[in-house]
Design brief:
single chain; alpha/beta; Rossmann fold; Dihydrodipicolinate Reductase, domain 2; 2 domains; six-stranded parallel β-sheet; 23% strand
Length: 360
């Protein structure tokens, strides 16, 4: 299967590794910065892979079957739509888009073209998350009561100086959209997907050189009667502390923790079907960074979905749900009242100037 990568920045090594692990025919890579491509080519033995600075030229000349989009967030939608129009299956890094309208356009285009569109929420493939999901689907939690997603990380000025688009409303958003959306996706997915209402606060406490938030706290009311708590920040001193996901049901409690929900720290169920010590030992991993090991199985699933003409495990609709919840948090915080879902329309650009008073 002919594969191409658009965007050779911070997350690209995970995509390159996943493509190689799945024996894809890596035909091309694209970035507006030739240096970024050269560095990745030298590091990963991709010297013979064709290099482009214009992705439209790459699509026209190489005609890849599968394209991964790993550019700045604000360009995900336009590039994805061009790839889909060219007949390509796509893996879109999170977030799938920065507006409801763009997410809807991607979903519609994918269905009309009959291609596979996958939102790159790779943490769904964590061994720990998969085991929690299995227990959920088997009904072991009983009635869901509430869940919580905590992302307590650190991002300093040097991180934002690496790529000026980070922390801007037009190309990114703040910590919730960039760093926290994976765990927000997991919380919504685990708690039944359907959200009734969101109440939130966001603020910019430390990163006054950005446009967007570095702290977000939200309460979520799910349609099934359960509740969710979201706490996301990039202000933790002096480095990343944890990313945790809690699921509380009438008959079960589970906690995934570690760098990115990779370790099962709590496992208690009324049915006694498995030994908590065994579960913790068997379904925990220690990845080298917050990106975890999920890209390779996500790619494997997408390849299988293409070959068997089925939907991927993580769909474009899933990507929209994660995006929608972040946008609902932004909207509630900006307007100072609870926000009902679904959102008919909303974009990160709706919040431009939100923290300008902080610059004072």
């Amino acid at each position: 299967m002919k594969y191409a990568l658009i965007g050779c920045g911070r997350i690209s090594p995970n995509h390159i590794g996943a493509a190689k692990n799945n024996q894809l025919d890596f035909v091309a890579m694209c970035d507006i910065l030739p240096k970024a491509m050269r560095e990745k080519a030298e590091k990963f033995g991709l010297e013979n892979v064709k290099k482009y600075t214009n992705y439209k030229e790459m699509l026209n000349h190489e005609k890849p079957e599968l394209v991964a989009i790993a550019t700045e967030s604000g360009k995900h939608a336009s590039i994805a739509l061009d790839c889909i129009a060219a007949g390509c299956n796509v893996i879109i890094e999170k977030p799938i888009a920065l507006s409801i309208a763009d997410a809807d356009a991607i979903i519609k285009a994918g269905h009309e073209a009959g291609v596979v569109v996958c939102a790159n929420h790779q943490n769904r493939f964590n061994k720990s998350v998969q085991y929690i999901r299995k227990a959920l689907e088997e009904g072991r939690f009983g009635k869901l009561l509430h869940g919580a997603a905590h992302i307590r990380w650190n991002r300093g000025k040097s991180y934002y100086e690496q790529a000026p688009w980070r922390g801007t409303w037009v190309q990114d958003g703040g910590c919730l959209m960039n760093q926290c959306i994976h765990n927000i996706d997991l919380l919504r997915w685990m708690m039944g997907n359907e959200v009734e209402e969101v109440m939130a606060y966001t603020d910019q406490l430390e990163h006054l050189y950005l446009e967007a938030e570095d702290l977000g706290i939200a309460l979520v009311k799910f349609s099934n009667g359960s509740y969710g708590l979201i706490e996301g920040t990039t202000n933790v001193y002096p480095k990343n502390l944890e990313e945790t996901l809690y699921i509380f049901g009438e008959k079960g409690t589970a906690k995934a923790a570690g760098t990115s929900d990779n370790i099962i720290e709590e496992w208690n169920f009324a049915d006694g079907m498995d030994d908590p010590k065994h579960v913790k030992a068997t379904y925990s991993e220690n990845p080298p960074n917050v990106y975890g090991f999920g890209h390779t199985p996500l790619y494997a699933d997408v390849i299988d979905a293409i070959n068997n003409q089925r939907a991927p495990y993580v769909t474009a609709e899933d990507g929209k749900r994660a995006l929608e919840l972040v946008l609902a948090i932004y909207k509630s915080a900006a307007e100072g009242h609870p926000v009902k879902l679904p959102l008919e329309s909303c974009s990160t650009m709706d919040f431009k100037g939100r923290f300008d008073v902080k610059k004072g």
